[in-house]
Request: fold
Amino acid sequence: MLFTIVVVLLVLWLLGFFAFPVMGGFIHILLVIAVIVVLVRVITGRRAL
Reply:
């Protein structure tokens, strides 16, 4: 589930970076948050539900 969210945010970030520069920053922040959440789950060893 988290991997899917990261992939979707990555695609939206790239789309925003090239097509809509105004939303690129917001999507970038969401992408960074998603990557941090994934890293925390990997480091702590928790499994997704």
